[in-house]
Amino acid sequence: METTNDKKLTVVLGASPNPERYSYLAVNRLTAHGHPVVAIGKRAATIGEVPVITEHPPLEHVDTVTLYMNPILQKEYYDYILQLQPRRIIFNPGAENEELEALARQNNILPQEACTLVLLSTGQY
Q1: Which among 50, 75, 51, 80 is positioned nearest to 65, based on CA atoms?
Q2: Which pLDDT belongs to residue 5?
Q3: Rounded to two decimals, what is the model's pTM?
């Protein structure tokens, strides 16, 4: 998947088809802003037009991995996240993880404790 200069390929880890979850809102708002999204969750579903997949496909040109899972659940994704070589990892509220933030820095990935929804709404994404 290629991205243009201002459209950032984003992997949403912890994507949920539940409309009350922030990950659901993030997928919808990212696509509304024109960003290509790969949504990865516990079970296959769809969020709008975006399929929620359970596998961990190899991807290129990933700008952002945005996390919607607690640090304990993140552990099984460490290798996958680092292999994607994103420009940054956004640790949404509740997903803060010092261990993964340190691994990110060691791999020249910017760790960012922020809210994807706020970044989108304020034009900082």
Answers
A1: 80
A2: 52
A3: 0.94
